[in-house]
Specification:
Blueprint lengths: L2 H4 L6 H28 L5 H5 L3 H22 L4 H5 L6 H31 L4 H6 L5 H33 L4 H14 L10 H9 L2 H13 L4 H22 L2
Length: 249
């Protein structure tokens, strides 16, 4: 990574804490706006109905979060693309390392949500039912095209490219920084979507913690893996977008 990204000033640690919680808050604000719109159209139980619109609330939060991240990077003399450009001279090695880590990350992505759903409901498909409700055509296409791109562009760049090094520069020990950032990255899913159901919230907020800790821990070890992890994240988000699109056909 470039020097400004890898070695931020300790004075920037406060913004690291701010952006750490920004995505969770943005998810809740975006979903609340959808709830208000549904309520205005006479939808019964608009909060529950808003859960199916999670790709839209996520895309809104992503666009605002991307603007926020870009603003902070520019204020610190760094460009957003600096986070994503492979480092010259090591990109082949980093690519091979990312490829070697792929099985581990795949297991961390697929297995915990299944085990968590089985533990909570005895059925691995219960939680997905709420996430795959049919959407109007324009919303389904947004889930297919915009949701994966915007999520990949902002999520790991925010947590792993911006927040993690700034918490470290503010004096937080490496283990503590990885644990905090990884846990927040995992738990944020409880707000995407948020519904007032304890079991669903428990499933969403815990199912992705192993993958989040793996991503953040590996980025703490080798920050140059970020571009490759962003590409992998895009593929994961694209798969989710395809599922929503197919459910809406």
């Amino acid at each position: 990574m470039t020097t400004p990204v890898a070695h931020p000033s300790p004075a920037e640690g406060g913004w690291g804490w701010g952006l750490l919680v920004s995505r969770t808050l943005l998810f809740l604000v975006a979903q609340s706006a959808i709830v208000a719109g549904l309520a205005a159209t006479g939808t019964r139980e608009p909060w529950w109905s808003s859960a199916a619109w999670w790709p839209i609330s996520a895309t809104i939060a992503n666009l605002v979060g991307l603007a926020l991240l870009g603003w902070r990077l520019r204020a610190e003399g760094v460009r957003w693309r600096d986070l994503l450009l492979p480092e010259p001279g090591s990109w082949r090695r980093d690519g091979l390392i990312a490829l070697a880590l792929l099985p581990l990350l795949a297991v961390a992505a697929v297995l915990p949500p299944i085990l968590s759903a089985v533990g909570l409901w005895g059925d691995p498909t219960v939680g997905q039912t709420l996430l795959l409700a049919p959407l109007p055509g324009w919303a389904a296409w947004t889930a297919l095209l915009l949701f994966p791109v915007t999520t990949a562009a902002v999520e790991l760049p925010t947590y792993g490219g911006y927040v993690l090094p700034r918490l470290r520069s503010a004096g937080l020990p490496a283990f503590a920084a990885v644990a905090i950032v990884g846990l927040v990255l995992g738990v944020q899913h409880g707000a995407l979507p948020f519904v007032p159901a304890a079991q669903f919230f428990a499933w969403r907020s815990t199912a992705f913690i192993p993958l989040a800790l793996a991503f953040v821990g590996l980025l703490a070890w080798r920050p140059r893996l970020l571009p490759w992890f962003v590409a992998l994240h895009f593929l994961m988000d694209a798969a989710a977008g395809v599922q929503v699109w197919l459910a809406s056909r």
